[in-house]
Amino acid sequence: MSKIFVKIEDFLLDQEYLKISGYSKNEVVPENGTPTEIVLADHSEVYRELMYQYGERAILIRDTETALTVFTNLFTDWVERRGDDIATLVDAYQRVYNPIENYDRTDEHSGFDTDLETPDTNGRYHKTTQTPSDWKTSVEQKPSDWITEETEAPGESGWKTKEKESKQEGADSAGETINKVVPFGRATPVTVSTAENNVATEKETETLGSLKNTTQQSGTYTTDTTQSGSFETKDELVGTLENKRTYNSQLHSHGNIGTASAQDLIEKEYRVRMIDLLKTVVLEFINEYTVYA
Question: Is residue 178 part of a domain?
Fold first, then answer.
């Protein structure tokens, strides 16, 4: 099986896989967070750099392979292996700082003070008094259809009959009836007249005892149960009350220390800013995987 060299300019296409990106190792990603992708160059920029700067460079393939497939696999594997390192470099390169100071330090302090407060012997509570709007007043009602029944009954000694008799002598003549009426309390006198022996006899019947009236009420009571007054809600705080005050302080020290002057720092800054990261990174790939045809 023979091997051949194929120039980049003979097979390379502008495709998505040519993008160079990664994730900075300096980024602190919160839990369940998503890291930030840092892109050095998109596929079009990388394509132009490869075609116009290194189009004459070639890769080595077997005669049974296609050059584009081999190059795609090489470039994809390289970006996967070096992408995070490249992203970390880009992250540092993009940081904002004072170019004429070589010392920049920030000290931060944070914490809290705690005050403990214990409830007194009676405890601490919030008092709330409420009166519901649906509370009612007790009402007893007498139905309009109540009736009163009266009955008569003898007293404890029952009903009795008492007779009284009286005689009166000196009739005008034998056989002559003499009509006389003598009252006895409430009873109605009965007068009996006789001429026998010229004596008049009178009998009276009197009813003894007393009347007793019994009143019977029929119907139903309607009673509405009520609650009166108000109720009190008391929420007690049990245990220790804790008041916590937090504080934060920050001390920022910066400047230029050592023997480096501001001019020295400007010169170094110039050399840093003249670095083309895309050219540097693409050249690393070219030197590792291609040869001069």
Answer: yes
Instruction: Count up the domains in the chain and report the number.
Output: 2
- β pairing state of 291-292 and 124-130: unpaired
Do 13 and 73 fall into the same domain?
yes
Q: Tell me how far CA of residue 120 lies from CA of 116, 126, 236, in angstroms.
A: 13, 14, 12
**Does the pLDDT of residue 177 top 50, yes or no?**
no
On whether both 8 and 98 belong to a single domain, the answer is yes
CA 180 to chain centroid, in Å, comes to 106
Alpha-carbon gap, residue 279 to 80, rounded angstroms: 18
Summarised one tens digit per residue, pLDDT across range 209-252 is 555 555 556 665 555 555 565 656 655 555 556 666 777 888 88
Question: Are 99 and 151 found together in one domain?
Answer: no
Asked if 7 and 100 sit in the same domain, the reply is yes
pTM over 0.85: no
In which domain, by residue range, is 178 found? 140-219
